[in-house]
Every structure is written in structure tokens, then in C-alpha cells.
Amino acid sequence: MPESSLLEVRDLHAWYGESHILHGVGFEVRAGEVVTLLGRNGAGKTTTLKSIMGMVPRRQGSIRFDGHELVALPSNRIARLGLAFCPEERGIFSSLNVEENLLLPPEVRPGGLPLDGVFGLFPNLKERLRSQGTKLSGGEQQMLAIGRILRTGARLLLLDEPTEGLAPVIVQQIGATIRRLRSEGFTILLVEQNFRFAATVADRHCVMEHGRVVDVIPNAALEASMGKLHEYLGV
Q1: pLDDT tens for the chain, residues 1 to 235
Q2: CATH of 5-92+155-233, one of 3.40.50.300, 3.40.50.1390, 3.40.50.720, 3.30.420.480
Q3: Domain boundaries, the chain
């Protein structure tokens, strides 16, 4: 694996029961990068994130993170190596308040953000500290979900559709947060439908079709690749 690659996925296949979802996915993410997985619904983007985290029952191929092979490891071992997954549905515990949600995840590695660090990124959460999960807006729930995984000490963040259904002003705030996390040394693999948003945060874009990565577009080449991208995404 090239020394600068923090994550390298090679010939990754994944199944749910009899359904063969991933058909030889391959890409890499270098330390400190933000990389997006772009593609139509059903292309295999979320399954790729879940496969990296060990959340898919059957997978084969190679997933190497910081020199460790993950493909045979359970999720709890993978998390302890420094990966964290923020699902599209956010997974907020609705009966717990904001502070309880933030204190819930264990620190899996040294270096997790203290509460003050989370509040520095998301001042809204400090104002809503005693509010139950059900009382939060969609944007506040997304901030809480990201804040929660930052508490664990993870170095590679897997974010699934973090802007889905959010108001434009909140999307801008999520974008600013991703750029700040990148500047602080975090590495981020991001599933995103909104390629215009992705262009504001990412270094490279991996385009997926039918369970494979079919193209990798550097962000600097995105404008020149717009015709091709529209064809891939059907927009």
C-alpha cells in the first residue's frame, strides 16, 4: 500500500443474503483527504461504507486501513483501530438529551474531542444540551451525530449523506465543519448525492455504478467533467 494511503479498498465484494451488491470495488483515501463516493441510488455507496466498518454479513476482497486488513474483523475491532461511521438515519437516541447522547460512545482511541471541542464546532448543541433527541431539528440531529463520532478518537470518518434533507444554511454549516475537520487532520470518506456540495469539500470523487467504482475525478477537474458526471448521475 502506498505510504500516504490511509485506506485502500481492493476488489471488494459484498452480499446481503443472496444479493450480490458490490462487484469488485477499488479505491484509496490518503491521510488528510476528503473523498466522496458519488452515484445514483442503488450504486452501492452506503454498502461500501458499511463493508469498511464490518457491518455487512458477507464480504470478500481487501480493505486495508493504516496497514491493518479489516475484511475479516468484526465492527468493534475495526472501530478500535480508529474508524467511525455516521449513518444517514443519524442513530440519535431519542429518549436521551444532547449531553447524554454525546457522553454515550466509548473512547476507542486517545484523541477524542472533549465536549468543549464539539461545542466549538457546533455551538447550537451547547444551547440544546438538555433537549431530548426528538426535540432537535434535522440539522441539529446531524450535528449531534457527527459530534458523537468525534468523541471516539476516530481518525477516519465515514459520513453517509450528511446533508440529506437539510436546509441550505445548515448544509453550509456542515460543509464548513467538514473543511475544518480536514484542516485539523481528519480523513473523511463521504457518501453524497449532492455533487455541488461535494465539490465544496472534497479532494477527489469516486463515481460508483452497479457496485463498482467506474471513475475517479479530482475536484480540480470536476467542472471539465460535468458532462460525464451528469451522464453517470442521471441529472
Answers
A1: 344 799 999 999 999 999 999 999 999 999 999 999 999 999 999 999 999 999 998 999 999 999 999 999 999 999 999 999 999 888 888 889 999 999 987 777 888 889 999 999 999 899 999 999 888 988 899 999 999 999 999 999 999 999 998 999 999 999 999 999 999 899 999 999 888 899 999 999 999 999 999 999 999 998 888 888 888 887 6
A2: 3.40.50.300
A3: 5-92+155-233
**Cell triple for 80:** 478500535
